[in-house]
Here is the input.
Amino acid sequence: MLWFILKRILWSIPTMVLISIATFIIIQLPPGDYVTAYIAELEETGESISALEAVELRKSFGLDRPMIVQYWDWISNIVFYGDFGLSLDWKLPVSDLLWDRIALTLMISTLSLLLTWVIAIPIGVYSATRQYSVFDYVFTVLGFLGRGIPDFLLALVLMWMGFAYFNFHVGGLFSPEMADAPWSLAKFWDLLVHLWVPVVVLATGGAAGLLRVMRANMLEELGKPYVETAYAQGMGEREVVWRYPVRVALNPFFSTVGWALPALISGDVITAVVLNLPTTGPLLLRALLNQDMYMAGGFILILSIFTIIGTLLSDILLTLTDPRIRHA
Amino acid sequence: MTDTNVTDMDKTQVIDTARPITLMWWRFKQHKLALWSLYLIGFLYFVAAFAEFLAPYDPFKHSKLHAYVPPQQVHLFHEGSFVGPFIYGLDRKRDPETARLIFSEDTAKVLPIKLFHRGDSYHFWGLWETDLHLFGIEGGRRDRLYLLGSDSLGRDLLSRLIYGGRVTLSVGLIGVFFSFVIGITLGSIAGLVGGRVDAAIQRVAEFVRSIPTIPLWLGLAAALPIHWDPIFVYLLITVILALIGWTNLARVVRGHFMTIRNQDFVLAAQLSGAKPKRVVTRHMLPSMTSYVIAAVTLAIPEMILGETSLSFLGLGLRPPVVSWGVLLQDAQNLRSIALAPWLLAPGAAIVATILAFNFLGDGLRDAADPYQK
Here is the structure.
């Protein structure tokens, strides 16, 4: 068992190296570099910059060196010193801007994941045990709707409804007057009031998908002889259902944690732009548009690494819960 | 008594001798939702194909006087008498406090909606020039028909929605075509050869899956320079979507190759001396067409979602190209939605399309194996 986990952890190292290379290539792909974008920006405001100055600028940012050297500089600083370089756009170290945002993104993603399960598991079990009942149909319709509505659209509609019908301003994580205030009970409450919107928006899509999976798995398990045996021994329905088939049907949940996480992080990026949340999304978008490469690279790298860790955790969870995989 | 027996006999005979495709169609027809989705998708693509004729206006024709006109209501009766479908003229007023334009119906002015109306001229499919539209209104130069309202420049949202559908729906098809090519090639190689090649392809697929899609899309899309030809950007966007979207198809294809590889009919073909190429193309691939079609159908909504998300964020297609994602950009901030909620209409179109493709895919998947119980 320990050996399996160790092997799995070792396997993820080359993946991380590959991810870092892919990230670096992606952020290098746009033609031109930060200096070109900077010059274009200056020209829009009527200023200009001489060719010599441009060369000097490139040199000072280290953009004139070969790609492989730049890559090594970038990754070695991250690995050895935790230094993600300087955001060319903000003129601040990337790590200063990065961690707060990542922490919020992870918090929202984790809460959404939990909410996804809280919604999907009981409803999936109910739909399977009361197949073709009225509520089963209701939940089926809701499930399909949830799968069909893109996150950002749901956010837009909620924002509009909140504004038009409830006079409630959806968006942001804090009220304007609370944003810079020090942490207090009032601020925490303010956060909770704002937090539910993005969490619900992100959870619906995933919950809708998992609900169907849970229902299908449960239907398959409920027909098996061991369930009948349990009933025959005189156990009540609640006890039978929750003690045996649910545990088997839960396996796909563990195996998809790894995929649910990247999906949530992806969803967070675009939802955050719509809802104006102080998470990674808006900053990443801005960094990409401005070719602020260290910033964009740092975000993509960290988000991808969290995804790999999520997959790793789901594999380990799966082997812990399902002995058949462990011994295969 | 004997009669029913005979029809029962006939029925079983018909079922026994029906071709697989007929069986699939019967099975598919039972899935009512999927059948209706098929009709809806057919209708959407029909509208997209004949956009120029079906849209009442040119999607770029703007009108300073008609910014943010709310959707107009079609009436049938004017002062108690039947006149056929018509709209009332528009009355413009300015709110003295907010300086906002307020439109109301001018019930004195009846503008009947005419079929086969001559309006803005266009090149039909780039072939010949005409000005025939399915419908439009007769009236002065200033009278316009806004069934879904207008945007900030007074452009007709319905026309833009119809033209946008052409781009968005075709992105789905072309993107799926690319990812289908990549997916089926890599998937069949992995499934056939197995061993190390299989493991390598599996790892690559896992790697692509493990990167969060939207940041990856954003990163790749940001690499496209703004000044490129919109058509070229459009093609590249579909390629980007395909480069990330092929993994699922590859998984389906690989899985099926793995299961049929050891089945009797493949062995029979091999024993009769068929060459490997013939076994794959004549025996194995046809046996999984239906599964692949189902997987492809389920992949289309992903592509459509990808395009709309990217364009919505301003990294995908950009104006002047009209797509549903580009249209939704207008509805990005609370102020414009509060002012003109009808700008969310493209969102409804997206949801309807995605749902329809999902139902259709589910129906196809159920029908894919007609011999299953």
